[in-house]
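Task 17 of the worksheet. Students: predict the tertiary structure of the chain below and write it out as structure tokens. Keep your answer in the requested format; marks are given for formatting as well as content.
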Amino acid sequence: MRRPPREYGRLTPELLVRAYAAGIFPMAESGDDPAVYWVDPPVRGIVPLDRFHVPRRLARTVRSQPFDIRCDRAFAQVVRACAESTESRPETWINGEICNAYAELHGLGLAHSVECWHGGDLVGGCYGVALGGVFFGESMFSRATDASKVALVQLAVRLVHGGFRLLDVQFVTPHLRQFGALEVPSRRYLRLLADALPVKALFHSELAPPVFGAIFETLTQSSTQTS
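Model answer:
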């Protein structure tokens, strides 16, 4: 369900926080459309963190460490890359106001990016908003094979380590379904949201290799047992 666009005012961090806590999020019709709509879908996409699935081939890729992983080093670049048109996604829902608003959230420590770098170039990543024990995944992009997938795995490990309870991905796509994404009715989503928001989770931008490795191997073992 899409609600009417805002008729006045600016998309402030305070407004975004209230919207996410109420279960709605903003989108634009296109990058050139200045209007921002509030979206309240009847079903919501989530990825259960206790059942996060890492495909076997991707697990081998992650272990080979093809990218230099950084977090929160180039947040604005990640958002702009997610807003770019591609062959598979000719239109974007990220306009200038959304870019600016999430940059402000990032400045407040409420929005984070996971980035894949190769040879000094940003080749993939994802970003989202962290409130309490919920991470609201917004978008991802890839300029190199598996870069966005590796970024999502890196994100999941950090969320598990930080004590997050809910990974909201808004809409389920074939790309996300391979990680265990599923749809839940809005009423159930709101219950999950209410349970997770009071949790005091922490987003870890930096993870020591042994910590990452231990959590990652736990995820892959769980994936093997449930596949």
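Marker's comment: The longest helix spans residues 209-226. The chain has one domain: 42-89+108-226.
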